[in-house]
Design goal:
By secondary structure, the chain is mainly α. The protein is built from 14 helices and no strands. Helix 4 runs antiparallel to helix 5. It is globular, with a radius of gyration of 19 Å.
Length: 335
């Protein structure tokens, strides 16, 4: 039987216990899908799974602002990151909001007719470029924590999905059929349109040392979820030696948002520095991670838990670069 998972073999959701089972329960209630593969693939690392769900829930689902607008941000981010799995997912979710014509225009590669929708979509796409002019916002300033949190959520989830999942949202690529997209969206409509109380997912987080919430979150639950995910994801640096960590972080510090060339010139050789190569691919072009890249890094002690953490580390170094540039822009605008 075909599986959506690449490079890892997550346990079946029915066997979940503890935090993983609690996340699945919240997903079923708040997202309408009990165990979407974007979260199942993180299940070998509950300490990553819980804050990833918390950040998505508290921004996209329970955060302030229009759900259609936030779905457009998520879609724009996914287009910029070349993540077809997530592009298809958010097209289906636009159907769930009731915006069927908009969803289908975007599925055909056409621009939204509504100028406000077009601006929000473009804003989401531009967030891939650290330092891009993202202000003034194309949404109310009061809604910024949820919109910014949504963008940063999907910069992370896109990279996880592209690295560790196949491109198909549904078996055999069924989501490419308009009738299937529409039907899938309609099955989620009741959940998507249901109001969600902010803060529910925070109970899943490790509160021993949640980290400092970023200023842009404005004291909302989005900030605590972001801080928890940052802390969990960056802990994956421990899988690399100091030289490899420095290489990854130096490359990302100089990154301008571009996708790497086809020949991947400048990337570490998989035979010499396989861990650094995997982390940098996860950050810049996770869709380019191959079986050979993973095999070159794998050792008997490298479990699925380790691989998920290494990919999450690379992914979040890129997210942190985007967030840092955005925070600097916000501070500059406020002076």
């Amino acid at each position: 039987m075909s599986t959506p998972f690449r490079h890892t073999e997550p346990l079946p959701p029915r066997s979940a216990t503890g935090t993983v089972a609690e996340v699945y329960a919240q997903l079923a209630l708040g997202f309408g899908i009990a165990a979407p593969s974007t979260f199942v693939v993180l299940s070998s690392a509950p300490e990553l799974l819980a804050p990833t769900w918390a950040l998505m829930r508290e921004s996209l689902i329970a955060g302030a602002g229009d759900r259609t607008g936030k779905e457009l941000v998520a879609l724009g981010v996914s287009l910029a990151n070349k993540c077809p799995f997530c592009v298809d997912a958010h097209t289906v979710l636009l159907h769930a909001t009731g915006d069927h014509a908009l969803a289908e225009r975007l599925a055909r590669g056409e621009a939204p007719r509504n100028e406000e929708h077009a601006r929000v979509l473009a804003w989401g796409r531009h967030t891939r470029v650290p330092g891009a002019a993202l202000m003034p916002y194309p949404f109310p300033r009061a809604h910024a924590p949820a919109y910014l949190g949504t963008a940063l959520t999907f910069h992370f989830i896109n990279r996880i999905a592209s690295a560790l999942l196949s491109e198909n949202l549904l078996p055999a690529g069924a989501q490419r059929l308009r009738a299937v997209r529409s039907l899938a969206g309609r099955t989620l409509a009741r959940t998507v349109r249901r109001p969600a109380r902010p803060g529910t997912a925070l109970a899943l987080l490790d509160h021993a040392d949640p980290g400092e919430a970023p200023a842009w979150a404005g004291g909302t639950p989005v900030g605590l979820a972001y801080a928890a995910l940052l802390r969990a994801a960056l802990s994956g640096a421990d899988l690399l030696d100091t030289d490899d960590q420095d290489l990854v972080e130096d490359v990302i510090q100089d990154w301008d948002g571009a996708h790497p060339p086809l020949d991947l010139r400048g990337f570490p050789d998989r035979r010499q520095r396989p861990g650094a190569r995997l982390a940098l691919l996860a950050a810049l072009a996770p869709y380019r991670i191959t079986d050979e890249d993973v095999a070159a890094w794998r050792r008997p002690e490298h479990t699925d838990h380790c691989l998920v953490h290494l990919v999450a580390y690379g992914a979040f170094v890129a997210v942190d670069r985007i967030e840092s540039a955005l925070s600097a822009q916000i501070i500059h605008q406020s002076l």
